[in-house]
Amino acid sequence: MRVLLIGKGGREHALAWKLCQTAQRVFIVPNGGTAASAPNVSNVEHADMHDFESLVALARTLAVDLVLPGPDDVVVEAIADVFEQPASLVLHHRKLPQGWRGQKTFAKDFIRRYGIPTVEYRNFDTYEHARDYLSSVNHRVVIKVSGLAAGKGVVLPETQEEAQRELHEMMVDKKFGHQEVVIEEFLSGDEISILAFCDGHTFRSLPPVRDHKRIFDGSKGPITGGMGVYGPVDFYHAN
């Protein structure tokens, strides 16, 4: 199999390392530093990974069998829809409703609508309503910017004052470029992530893993993207 891997971060580096163990060739775009760590892995000069039409042409030229987009923003921009006509298989969703693409508010409402257990939450698109709600609660909260924020759009304030300051930065100062937020009840405990591949008929689950959310050792510092996950998870079992 010949694979076109899109992205230049740590996620794509890990994917390239694993793919090269079984794929005939792995091509990485853009050529931004993701290491070509094996003879069958190579970086390809390409100006813009958001220029989907040129990526389609590149995939045809390289005769790839699979296109694997890594970065969240490329996925949210619906790269799979552009690749629908060429023969290449794109490992991601196609033609999902716009709300599915990176909006936490949409996801939370979907979860509630279909009775999937979740914490108490409220969605807000105006600062004044969010500020007043935050002032009315007497428990710790988690504040999440609804759209993509490079893994940095979630804060766990420990005091009401800190929560109000973070909310103002998100909704008024538009720290992450978005205004809509989710305010959730804070829960403390163990967490695991289980992802699955699905083709619309069958699914295959990946092993359970645990996220490194904080930037420093000992679960200290701000929550940030790109810190990776680890497994197996010792507290998880089949039951």
Automatic annotation (TrEMBL):
Residues 108-191 form the ATP-grasp domain. Keywords: ATP-binding, Ligase, Nucleotide-binding. The keyword Phosphoprotein does not apply. GO terms for molecular function: ATP binding; metal ion binding; phosphoribosylamine-glycine ligase activity. InterPro entries: ATP-grasp, ATP_grasp_subdomain_1, PreATP-grasp_dom_sf, PRibGlycinamid_synth_ATP-grasp, PRibGlycinamide_synth, PRibGlycinamide_synth_N. GO terms for biological process: purine nucleobase biosynthetic process. SUPFAM superfamilies: Glutathione synthetase ATP-binding domain-like, PreATP-grasp domain. Gene3D superfamilies: 3.40.50.20, ATP-grasp fold, A domain, ATP-grasp fold, B domain. It comes from the Eukaryota. This is ATP-grasp domain-containing protein. It comes from Verticillium dahliae (Verticillium wilt).
